[in-house]
Amino acid sequence: MAAGSAVSHMKLVTCAIVLLPLFVTIATSHNIFLDWHVSADFNLKPASSDQPVITINGMFPGPLINATTNDVIHVNVFNCLDDPLLFTWNGIQQRLNSWQDGVSGTNCPIQPGRNWTYVFQTKDQIGTFFYFPSINFLKAGGGFGPIRINNRAVISVPFPKPEAEYDVLFGDWYSTSYKDIRSRLATADVLPPDWMLINGKGSYLNNLSQSYEIFNVTQGKTYLLRISNVGTAWSFNFRIQNHQMVLVETEGSYVNQIELDSLDVHVGQSYSVLVTANQNATDYYVVASPKMSNASDNSTLVGVAVLHYDHSTSPANGSLPWGPDPFDLQFSIIQAESITWNLTTGAARSNPQGSFNVSNVTISETFILQASTATINGSSRYTVNNVSYLTPDTPLKLADYFSNGTGVYELDTYSKNTSNVNAVSGVFVASAIHKGWTEIVLENNLDTIDSWHLDGFSFFVVGMGYGKWIPESRSIYNLYDPVVRSTVQVYPGMWSAVYVYPDNPGMWNLRSQNLKSWYLGEELYVRVYDADPNPAKEKPPPKNLLLCGKFQPPAPIPAPSIPAPSIPAPSIPPPSIPPPSVPPPSVPPPSIPPPSIPTPSVSPAAKPPSSMAYNPNRTRSLIAVITTALSFFYIIGSY
Ligand SMILES: *[C@@H]1O[C@H](CO)[C@@H](O)[C@H](O)[C@H]1NC(C)=O
Ligand SMILES: *[C@@H]1O[C@H](CO)[C@@H](O)[C@H](O)[C@H]1NC(C)=O
Ligand SMILES: *[C@@H]1O[C@H](CO)[C@@H](O)[C@H](O)[C@H]1NC(C)=O
Ligand SMILES: *[C@@H]1O[C@H](CO)[C@@H](O)[C@H](O)[C@H]1NC(C)=O
Ligand SMILES: *[C@@H]1O[C@H](CO)[C@@H](O)[C@H](O)[C@H]1NC(C)=O
Ligand SMILES: *[C@@H]1O[C@H](CO)[C@@H](O)[C@H](O)[C@H]1NC(C)=O
Ligand SMILES: *[C@@H]1O[C@H](CO)[C@@H](O)[C@H](O)[C@H]1NC(C)=O
Ligand SMILES: *[C@@H]1O[C@H](CO)[C@@H](O)[C@H](O)[C@H]1NC(C)=O
Ligand SMILES: *[C@@H]1O[C@H](CO)[C@@H](O)[C@H](O)[C@H]1NC(C)=O
Ligand SMILES: *[C@@H]1O[C@H](CO)[C@@H](O)[C@H](O)[C@H]1NC(C)=O
Ligand SMILES: *[C@@H]1O[C@H](CO)[C@@H](O)[C@H](O)[C@H]1NC(C)=O
Ligand SMILES: CC(=O)N[C@H]1CO[C@H](CO)[C@@H](O)[C@@H]1O
């Protein structure tokens, strides 16, 4: 890091040099600093075609974020793509900090040629997660990677320490450019992706694959596989020839351990399983095959990797291990219902997971959300309660902070529990009662398996059922040990119900993980608002907050000596800034900046979605940057 680069708070990126991963983990401070150069690579050709693949520091999938409970992750993202970019951290709860969630409703995009640093904490979490680019359909081009949150040393884990851990990211893949797919989505009937990659590599059995993945094991040892479905559309059944798996964790919860021959993983879900190398030392097939598809053994849509024993005497052979009938959803449903929460084990904390449970809670509110499709103004859209989400130029979170939403969204315009009469496009923001238990029923009117994710929370998966949900459906709920996670599948023609405790104020995305559905409107935001003015409740915007849309950056501050509106450093309790989640006493018209909030200029006609780093006090930021840099070098020097 040259001293010069610190001068500009937000630096124009030199995109030519990308292969410079900077991984520094400072054990004592529990800060993890990462520099990510995100670019398009045309030479990887995982599916044999020379489409752009989104890499991070040249890697596909991107680098592992290997964190421990409560670590603080600093990810400086350099956008070397020609599309605006945001990353979201699937399943990371961003306690009191939806500013770092990285979806269109919370952050202005990082423009091409720019960089921006996320800073977030893995507060009170453990488990298996992943990250991915959240906007512009970029996920279909890659850019995803694994996140592990390890237990702190003082917390015991409910299984013996494995010999090694492997990240297993599998997902479907289009063999054409994400840009082509994106441009055709609204107008043409785009076929689902027809390839399957495991850790960015094609099938062992398909000679079009450039390479295939090998998991190395030693006979007699046990391994932890951290599995995520990073794809865009297909659910997969995962299995290993001649080997069983023990399911131990999902999306941050320890489950009651069950032995499985195969595991269904839906889009956006994560699991960890233990696999013991207890067979003869040869090679074995590792298979992920699509649900609800007749894809044959050797099709590109069947992922095949290799489990390779040390001193293996033969390559993988025989036929692929049989999975369940891909159209037998009953198998999948029964398996889902058998995944329950281990109430007695500790997780991020030593007290039992089950000490916070739903066996006796009072529901304050029920959301009934129905996913469907509709044609709106001639284009095909996905809808929730007949509303197709319309992404405003201004992130909801910014509007919330600067103008109590005025001019960008209106809270509860659309019903949370009935479908709009006509299909419309709109900015669907639903309120949730702070600390009032909320039941969310997700119904699927589509003919594919849907998968829903809520940012900011884990939820209790209390039930699934056929047809329409009715209040009597509650009689089949499991309120004793429902699994706690953040992504739940919804089978076609069925519903899934979850309970969530909205104790995390902020603006939170509730979305279909199926990329096309999400991109075409199957999402909404849930606003959790806490009237308590204590600033400890929700974090103030970060110092490097990007502005865009209605709230444009102020004109450049000419000289550092000119007094700027005072904004305290984040670590100092803010004396003059109003608590972030509390709206200004009266909503000012958008052109009047709210009292003592940094003054963005409002330009309703702002067309190019430019976003610039907001820099209230250049002097101070410069000092801060230099100080950070100095202490950084000091730490490296003493490392
Ligand atoms: C991840 O972090 C843990 C805890 O610090 C460490 O034991 C492990 O070796 C790390 N794994 C990788 C792949 O870096
Ligand atoms: C951009 O990167 C530089 C380091 O190259 C860093 O000092 C600066 O804080 C980053 N900008 C933002 C907005 O994160
Ligand atoms: C690849 O496999 C197909 C059959 O799946 C076969 O027809 C073809 O000849 C193979 N190509 C090469 C280069 O081996
Ligand atoms: C297994 O070993 C091979 C050969 O050394 C290596 O190329 C491969 O990356 C290893 N696999 C994993 C998942 O580490
Ligand atoms: C649940 O966790 C406890 C405590 O770690 C462990 O002893 C027990 O085996 C686990 N139960 C199951 C069914 O996995
Ligand atoms: C392992 O190899 C031995 C000797 O080749 C054979 O008898 C046995 O059936 C094999 N076991 C398995 C599980 O394949
Ligand atoms: C899959 O195969 C079954 C049985 O062969 C057939 O009934 C069904 O129509 C096929 N489905 C698709 C989508 O091709
Ligand atoms: C691929 O699968 C089809 C259908 O199962 C089969 O007919 C064909 O022989 C297979 N090809 C190869 C190369 O295995
Ligand atoms: C369940 O809740 C009711 C009402 O809040 C309370 O009276 C009762 O003691 C609770 N039961 C248990 C087992 O916690
Ligand atoms: C911000 O800038 C003003 C004017 O240059 C200066 O007086 C003040 O000390 C700065 N604040 C901080 C925290 O550096
Ligand atoms: C802010 O918006 C909310 C929801 O629309 C409304 O209930 C509240 O009264 C507004 N606050 C102010 C200060 O206008
Ligand atoms: C899994 C499997 O069937 N492996 C076999 C592959 O072929 C060798 C040699 O014929 C056998 O020893 C393995 O059992």
From TrEMBL:
Q: What does UniProt give as the signal peptide span?
A: 1-29
Keyword Mitochondrion assigned? no
Q: Which residues form the Plastocyanin-like domain?
A: 46-152, 168-311, 394-531
Sequence segments annotated as region (Disordered): 570-614
Task: Tell me if Signal is a UniProt keyword of this record.
Answer: yes
InterPro entries cross-referenced by the UniProt entry = Cu-oxidase-like_N, Cu-oxidase_2nd, Cu-oxidase_C, Cu-oxidase_fam, Cupredoxin
Compositional bias segments (type: Pro residues): 570-598
UniProt keyword annotations, A-Z: Glycoprotein, Signal
User: Which Gene3D superfamilies does UniProt cross-reference here?
Assistant: Cupredoxins - blue copper proteins
Comp. bias regions, Low complexity = 599-613
The similarity annotation says: Belongs to the multicopper oxidase family.
Q: What is this protein called?
A: Monocopper oxidase-like protein SKU5
The species this protein belongs to is Flemingia macrophylla
